[in-house]
Amino acid sequence: MNRRSLVLSALAAGFAQVTAAGPQPQEMAEWSRFFTEADAQGSIVVLDARDNSETTHVYNVSRSARRYSPASTFKIPHSLFALDAGLLRDEFQLIQWDGVKRPVEAWNVDQNLRSAMRNSTVWVYERFAKELGDARESAYMRKIGYGNAVATGDKPFWVEGDLAISSFEQIAFLQRLYRNQLPFQVEHQRLVKDVMVNEAGPDWILRAKTGWTGKIGWWVGWVEWPSGPVFFALNMDTPNRLADLAKRQSITRNVLRSIKALPTSA
């Protein structure tokens, strides 16, 4: 299959994920201002499931259907795989540091699932990948329909390799996790959701994970309200590398505030 065919296949898969879930997405051209104000190029999908209805809002539909490396957003399903395989018992189990100094100081200590998710500790998930093996990783991904479900290419495969997922597919995965509908023990799904908490208010909880390949940035997750969840998946270029990373959250927060899915203070 040539490159054009692969791209078309990925686009079709992305559209299939969202259209199978409900009505056609609504293009939100007005959200371009949030990207323009941040001097950023990207896309965002927001599925608003409050008040017993579902509406999908999208800025940049074609990009939202295109697959990209998930980077550290893959830590969400990867944590489920590790729990299911018995590599982890719970969020308190100590994961011993190997003594190798790495560029992020928070990585250079023993970890548990909560700290590994919070600090995006790469070596923890590289260890999980080594213990699981590529074949088992791929089998898990096929089981949950995660992107192209491959563990091939350079390592780590979720950053440097061939694994890729679209924003629409991210939303579909997050919905199943929110509803405990993935083929894993419910307590494991609840545990992973617990370690995804970023922020909370009196009547809302924000659960999310960032990702960055060096060229592409992600922020995916959802906001829980008494009236229901609002799912989001932002994907953007990061030509200025570290200087662009804060834009992932600032753009997303502005979008969510514009539809009252986050309070103005958040």
From TrEMBL:
- How far does the signal peptide extend, from start to end residue? 1-20
Q: Which UniProt keywords apply?
A: Antibiotic resistance, Hydrolase, Signal
- Listed EC numbers: 3.5.2.6
What is the uppermost EC class here?
Answer: hydrolase
Catalysed reaction(s) here are: a beta-lactam + H2O = a substituted beta-amino acid
Q: Which residues carry this modification: N6-carboxylysine?
A: 75
The record ties this protein, via InterPro entries, to: Beta-lactam/transpept-like, Beta-lactam_class-D_AS, PCN-bd_Tpept
Give the residues annotated as active site: 72 (acyl-ester intermediate)
Q: Which residues form a coiled coil?
A: none
What Gene Ontology terms describe what this protein does at the molecular function level?
beta-lactamase activity; penicillin binding
Q: What is a biological process (GO) this protein takes part in?
A: antibiotic catabolic process
Q: Which domain of life is it from?
A: Bacteria
Q: Where is the Penicillin-binding protein transpeptidase domain?
A: 42-256
Q: Which family does it belong to?
A: Belongs to the class-D beta-lactamase family.
What's the protein here called?
Beta-lactamase
**What is the protein's species of origin?**
Comamonas thiooxydans
